[in-house]
């Protein structure tokens, strides 16, 4: 195949489609080149290896489909890791090979089958040795009569860079090996890496100084080894892990595992290894290492499986770039590129509208990912992401997958910017994006099916309508059965009595208890009712303040923003949320229905909080209120009606402690702080009983 550089301006013979292909190729070529340079020359990759591979593969597959359009300068023709010119070049005595990869159990058994095919029957099913695949740089160390003489990088496998001076600064590399004095030439190979802790420290220091940080420990290690000034390299926290002896191994050592033990004996650091016989055992160890991976002091990106017997390794030999006796079992990629097919909007249980990216399904970190949260509209704008884009998705450990990069370079024509929906995709109510908030919200609140379940649970809760007899579990089943949709439907449950009795495990007795509790809840207080509505930003205290300020529901519902702002402790955001809540027709209808069903309260004596007898005071309640039989929540309602704030713990700021029977540590604390203690009788007098 002859490659051509297609000059599009001078190529009238190209069809429109071919032109498009060439444009795409040129884009991919520019990308691959850029990342080649970032990785190999600058030691500063901006994307993961896997993303890089995927980019390269897209280019290769395009070239395979259109060989006639393949560009002469395509980087797919070369491997990119040419040695740096600044260090002197050294040819390896024995080429430094790379490793083939397997990615799953099937690949692994296939690898073992190929090994068996090449071994004569007596040697079949050899023992294997498994090591960690350390994520650093391969380095060859040469010793003459036990003295370290040279350190060389892998380079292109034939020729590497002489980094002797930098290697000498690595603390755990022995410079003199007594036990190897009689060995003419000893060549040890292994991985130079930067432990995670050192990497973090290095980056923190760089950040403090305003210097560039490294993308990951491997690149920090690479950058450090390639420092032209050994003094700089000396300050980098590097470590060497030996994994093979390529020259000078004592003849009585016959196994790879034996070589590792020997290396350790003579002063090298080696990582642990495991001996196994079957693919199942490899798989088990591999899976246990995936679990352990995050807690290791250095990064590993897979396991390496080696035929343990060195004589068999020799028999098996090597292909051009990789041995037949070993392979890497890579861990699942944690960052993967895929296409974002669509962006959909989901409505959460509290009305927040969040964008969800629908992906072309991909394997990330070992699981298939087809949805990814895009968090909020601001995130979409920050990423500048559109349906149709190619994105990188990252997932590590149990972390929720996220989009870490949008490939704007690869964006197809005709994509549209994303806009925030104006109406809720579930109920059609208008969507608002409150100022200062990241999340857009559906204004359907009590009406929106996506929010109803949450609204129901809140409505019956203890501090709201306090319908104890109607448990959350039943409420959810009624909701799922369609018997209860809005909070108002709770007060029509008695119309379904027959149906309820037939509910599994819900007998006549429980139904009648439930209906009684519902009936009793009809008499409530205004502040509880306001709180029960579940208006965003309106907690118990705000509800209390609103009840106090407006005295009854109609003036609150009709209040404009300015009037709402006059209420104690209410700011613009909450005022707006309240205002909007009472403007939504659905909400008004539900409130009317609740009142028609008999929900009622006493008007609250109006006045500002300041006029109330306990205004400005903070009370704490403890013990059991025996005389009145009041629950603590009821006592709290009373105290709040008198203007007090009620808190859960006693401090020097507490104005008074209301102490019932069997008061414990709170009473002791109040006494020691000299806080006023009010007994139940005095309290009953205060509230006029
Ligand atoms: S053995 C011919 N063992 O992985 C055998 N390599 O993808 C080649 N690596 O260039 C090396 N940990 O930099 C071996 N325990 C280990 C390894 C390991 C990491 C690296 C090494 C090599 C690359 C091949």
Overview of the structural elements:
There is one protein chain. It contains 24 helices and 24 strands. It is an alpha+beta fold and 689 residues long. It folds into five domains: 8-77, Helix hairpin bin (Helix Hairpins), CATH 1.10.287.610; 90-330, D-amino Acid Aminotransferase, Chain A, domain 1 (2-Layer Sandwich); 335-410, OB fold (Dihydrolipoamide Acetyltransferase, E2P) (Beta Barrel); 431-601, 5' to 3' exonuclease, C-terminal subdomain (DNA polymerase, domain 1, Orthogonal Bundle); 618-688, BRCT domain (Rossmann fold, 3-Layer(aba) Sandwich). It is elongated, with a radius of gyration of 36 Å. It starts with 15 loop residues before the first helix and ends with a helix. The structure holds 2-(butylsulfanyl)adenosine (IVH).
